[in-house]
UniProtKB/TrEMBL annotation:
Name of the featured protein: DUF6594 domain-containing protein
Keyword Transmembrane: yes
Listed transmembrane segments: 262-285, 297-316, 323-341
Keywords: Membrane, Transmembrane, Transmembrane helix
Organism: Amniculicola lignicola CBS 123094
Stretches assigned to the DUF6594 domain: 64-335
Family matches, as PANTHER family: DUF6594 DOMAIN-CONTAINING PROTEIN, DUF6594 DOMAIN-CONTAINING PROTEIN-RELATED
InterPro entries assigned: DUF6594 (IPR046529)
Top-level division of the source organism's lineage: Eukaryota
């Protein structure tokens, strides 16, 4: 749909909203006019567009509705039991039933092979003919295989389900404490037996997916929650939707993306310090140019490489091979600095000089 010049001019007037659907398509303009058929807008169009509906925890009735609202309000609060023990019991039960069926099938095949009924083993038609000859309504082998198929399906479903549950992440200590505090403060369930599931920490998993926060991320969020200027932290580290989720003084929602940006700033500053400080220290040591200072510079290189590795391990969720590669690259940078420095005259030398 192409727009003419009149439409574009009308779009600039108050009460008109321009919707850019696609950068490659024409602009679609909605132009309500202040006529008798169209009443004037009562609200700012930007407010109408940006306004959202957020369900608060207090809007849910106390009990399971409020508990479900709390656990669904944040992925880190979605903590549930896996029932590992019951999975094991069911798997063991089905496993033994299948073992018994396997033995019965082996005994049946062995008896047919010894009693001259090899056709029952080499042909399904032969097995059916033998069944009619024995005046039986159905083949025992077919019935047994049908039972085995049913139990195998059940066994496979439970086994695969247990395997998938085993791949779920365990809740972090911080997330677990948050849910425990909600149970302590709000007491959503009246039955102690129904509430005790949260006490079985070793049997709990979280539905939180994606990159699990490092310990440093949780520590920073905890530090932010302890800042004395609550109005400032809620302004900087929460969104309008998160502020609407609860009016309680004990429940705070922080935006993971904003916390992660703050953490990235801190990590960037730490990396900057770890890169600049050893260079400055080694420069001052190697400027004198004696042998002892050179060994001191090597000691600084080793110390700061260890600090860098420790920072990578604690501040990030880097895997072992990533940690090794980053530490090796960091050490290589410092080694190149020392090797290219001419200690006799205090100037940077060429790589070949």
């Amino acid at each position: 749909m192409n727009t003419n010049a009149d439409d574009i001019n009308n779009a600039e007037k108050p009460g008109h909203v321009v919707i850019d659907i696609d950068s490659r398509a024409s602009t679609v303009v909605h132009t309500p006019t202040n006529t008798a058929e169209n009443s004037p807008p009562t609200r700012d169009p930007n407010i109408e567009i940006n306004d959202t509906i957020t369900s608060t925890l207090e809007s849910y009735p106390c009990g399971y509705p409020q508990l479900a609202g709390f656990q669904s309000s944040e992925s880190s609060f979605s903590i549930y039991r896996t029932f590992d023990y019951l999975h094991s019991r069911v798997i063991l039960q089905l496993q033994d039933e299948l073992r018994d069926c396997e033995e019965n099938l082996s005994d049946m095949d062995y008896l047919d092979s010894k009693n001259g009924r090899e056709k029952c083993l080499t042909s399904r038609m032969g097995d059916l003919k033998q069944t009619r000859k024995d005046k039986q309504s159905s083949s025992k082998r077919v019935d047994l295989l049908a039972t085995i198929a049913t139990k195998l399906i059940q066994y496979d479903q439970v086994l695969v389900g247990a395997r998938k549950l085993g791949a779920f992440q365990r809740p972090s200590a911080r997330d677990y404490r948050s849910v425990r505090r909600f149970f302590y403060n709000e007491k959503p369930l009246s039955s102690m037996s129904e509430e005790q599931y949260i006490l079985r920490k070793e049997d709990l998993v979280t539905l939180r997916h994606g990159r699990e926060w490092a310990t440093f991320d949780g520590w920073v969020e905890g530090l932010v929650s302890k800042f004395p200027w609550k109005w400032l932290t809620r302004k900087l580290f929460t969104t309008p939707e998160l502020r609407k989720k609860s009016t309680s003084d004990t429940i705070f929602y922080y935006s993971p993306s904003r916390i992660e940006q703050f953490v990235c700033l801190i990590i960037t500053f730490i990396i900057f310090v770890l890169l600049v400080l050893p260079v400055v220290a080694m420069y001052k040591l190697t400027y004198v140019g004696n042998r002892n200072n050179l060994f001191d510079a090597i000691g600084i290189l080793v110390a700061f490489t260890l600090l860098f590795s420790a920072a990578m391990g604690m501040l990030t969720k880097a895997k072992r091979h990533e940690l090794f590669a980053a530490s090796a690259a960091y050490c290589a940078v410092l080694v190149v600095f020392i090797s290219n420095f001419d200690g006799q005259n205090g100037k940077m030398g060429s790589p070949g000089g």
